[in-house]
Amino acid sequence: MNITMGDSMSLDSVDYDPIAHLNLVFSHPSTVSSVARVSSKIQKHQHELSKEITALETAQAYGPDSSLERMQSAQAELAFLFQRIESVRSRALQTERDITTMTADIKRLDGTKRNLTLSMTALKRLQMLTTAYEQLRGLAKTRQYRECAGLLQAVLQLMRHFNSYRSIEQIAVLSRNVSELQRELLEQVCEDFEIAFAKGEVAARRGVLVEACLVMDALGEHAKTRIVHWYVNTELREYRQVFRGNDEAGSLDNIGRRYAWFKRTLKTHEEEHAIIFPQHWRVNEQLAMSFCDGTREDFKGILEKSMRRTDGPKIDVNLLLSCLQETMDFEQGLERRFASEPRASIDTLSSAGAADERTQNFNGSISTAFEPYLSLWVEYQDKALAAMIPKYKTQHLLPEDEEFSPQSVITSAIELFHFYKVTLSQCIKLSTGERLLDLAAVLAKHLDEYAQQVLLGFLQRGGAQGPSIQDIILVLNTADFWQTRTEQLEQSMKKRIDLQMAAKVDLSPQDDNFGRVAQAAVLALVAKVEMDCESAWREMKNTNWSRMESVSDHSSYVGELLKHVNGKAEEILPLIVMQKNARTFCDNLVKNLAETYIHNVVQCRPVCETGAEQMLLDKYVLTKAFENLMSFHTSSSSSGQPPTGFQKFVNVAMAKMDPLLKTLQVRPSPPEGLVQAYLIHIGDRSDTNFRKILELKGVRKTDQPHLMELFAIHRDGPAAGKQLVERSALLEPLLNSSSGGLGSSGIAGASSSTLAAGLGSAGLQTRLDAASLGERLLNAAKDSVERAGGAGGAAGDKVNINENLKNIGNFFRRDIGALGARFGKRDITPTNGGLDG
């Protein structure tokens, strides 16, 4: 069999495929018998190839043109090449030596020329220096200071070129002569200044002194500093003699005389002496700062001495505050005075470090002496704020000449915030440490008092009708105003207080308190609406629900109720500026109306099946009407559609009554139907609650035992047993007081139930007066503190008002949160100042 069939099947082929070749050779089972023959042929072919390879290798290795011979030839050629390279390198080195020898003389001539040029330049400069020195000596003797200044700069600049030649005796002598001349000029100028000021000849010799300052500028910073210090000490000598050597003149009582004296001195300087000194020396600032430094040290000694006194009062607080205020006014006057002077631009980085840039800061330059005693100042601010709170309680909310607007804020809030800003600004200038932290605590305390005593106090006004709507809106706006400003105050103090104390500044409790005041104001607005609805609820209870024979579109009380609700909402909502407050108002109003509706259903017993169906239809009409409440608010009216979140909230709140009404719709015959309806809609195992439903439907006493027995059988059955709760969360609080009545209608049924649940106070189950809303809020908070105190008694009385307000807010959140948890709606959650919109 041929194993080399075709080009692609040849063993010598580049793309030879053994598998394809084998498949071709053994294409049929009958060809298997030729395996041995094929294998033998392949081995034979392999042996032939091996022999051929061996022969070729031998011929290549030992032939006349073998690889070994070519390698030997290449090595010989490389050796010859290396010899030639070495020869070229040797010739290059020799050439370089020859060129160096040829150019050595040229280099020597170039060096000589360069040295000669340097020598001539040095000699010329030395000649110029010697000439300038001699001229400078002559000008100095004749006090020609303007020429001296320019020539002195030239001499000093030339002298710097000879610093490296001072080992030469002549140069060293000249350098000493120049230094001596500098010293003589300095002493001579200082002597001229002393004589002129001592003899009162400043005006007559002003020209000479102006030119002398140019010489001092040329002499350098040390000369300028010496003459400025001498001038400042000369001008302040009288001040130190009068106010330091005299206890009466130097006392705090005469602090005004110190500042008046300096103002006169500064005026004299600017009118007579300022022209003498170059402007960039800023002698007036140096004079002012030296005065401040000396005065500060004087005050430190006086205050320390006063604190060590044992024969009388240490420090008069009023005098201390008066001195502090006068000192701060003086510092601010200096800061304004010198900040307005022209100076180098600070718009660019290059000019920021200019020599004439003003670096003095007079704020705190004297008043820091009072810092250790600022606790007295903080106490004074505390007393001032304590006196302001009672005044604010009796003030009109707005001035008589100011008209109300929906954006108006109580005048006292603006005054108080301005007082806070000014006080904080003053304290920051004096201290950014412990005193600022103490002031923060004082401000926080009085913010709590303002929230409790002033804002909540306004909600108690107005007698039986409560405060007016406009007054409540003002309280609401003020609470929102202070919520924003409290955060601003906190951030401002944290930025300026020492870094290690920043974490201790916390006004978040006060921020929360104003949020709770806003909630209380919203509840007061809700109470206004509920009071207006009493007649509608009275009409509902006067309807005979036990003998109703047919169902109409809606009951007459529904129209009356919607008229009052919409009318009041249309009056109140446009006055509420913030969207979140409007949403909170609508949420609470709907929730309270829904609870009032359920309580009135219980008071309308007995309710027949048709009556329950009519109530369910009335509830549907009310739900659809309540969904549009937010449209009365200006921010919602433009969209045309009520917010989706609010619609969900209304449906959830109004759906609370569905289980009760749907159960009342079922007839007691057959009895199994009523029992099954109760288990489906109410879904609890309570015999008491089931009996109350029977009473609410008006089932006769004689028929109740049979129904109770059926209820027990179905309740304990295997199908319903695991799905029932012990007591319905809806029915239990609703029917607890049904036997004794639920109290009065209207606001008694709505506000009382809401605030009783929210504040945890059983005493609020009775009629709630709008005028007593704020008082009941505070009483509820106090009750919670007393309960928390337990046996501690007095300890509970010491809990601050911050915790009281916090408890109120927690109660509000707990009440609203319970509603959301009951119906599984996450959008019914309390937020800061209202429910999530």
Provide the descriptors you would attach to this structure in a database record:
837 residues, mainly alpha, 2 strands, 0% strand, disordered C terminus
What general form does the structure show?
flat
* Count of DSSP H/I helices: 31
Could you describe the largest sheet, including whether it forms a barrel?
Answer: 2 strands, antiparallel
Q: What would you report as the Rg, rounded to the nearest angstrom?
A: 52 Å
Please give the alpha-carbon distance between the first and last residues: 94 Å
Percent helix:
55-70%
Major sheet strand order: 1-2
What low-confidence regions span 5 or more consecutive residues with pLDDT below 50? 343-358, 737-837
Q: Hey, roughly how much beta strand do the residues contain?
A: under 5%
What structural category arises from helix and sheet content? mainly alpha
Number of separate strands:
2
Mean pLDDT across residues: 79
InterPro entries: Vps53, Vps53_C, Vps53_C_sf, Vps53_N
Organism: Podospora fimiseda
Family: Belongs to the VPS53 family.
Subcellular location: Endosome membrane; Golgi apparatus, trans-Golgi network membrane
